[in-house]
Fold this sequence. Notes:
This protein has helices spanning 2-25, 29-50, 70-88, 90-111, 123-140. It is mostly helical.
Amino acid sequence: MGIIFAILAGLLMSIQGVFNTRLMKSSNMWITNVWVHFSAFITCIIIWLLTGPKNLLTVFNIENKLYLLGGIIGAFITFTVIKGIDKLGAAQATMIILLAQLLVAYVIEVLGLFGTEKVVFEWTKLMGVILMLAGIFIFKK
Length: 141
């Protein structure tokens, strides 16, 4: 199931990035960002209500309050994805986004940041990243 959800996430993120970039053409960056997050908010409220709502304020029970910044990060993710796709095109921007995600996620795991389980650094994984980088250059040519 994890693989299916990861594939769906990649599919949805690629489509959303293109949709948001097109939407920005009829408005501006921050209006688009507001609409994206407002419509996501409404969707989440509806699903929350349909799935048997729990106390909304329990989210603040988290020990590390830093984790409450996800929505703020999300606004800047939307901004950077739109700008990346606008300047590079959907395929090239997505490849670079995925490479950056992979690198940062691996560093987080190797260092055990943000409560993740620490993993041992493996050179083969670094080689995989280098191959991805080579793939981006090949794709661009």
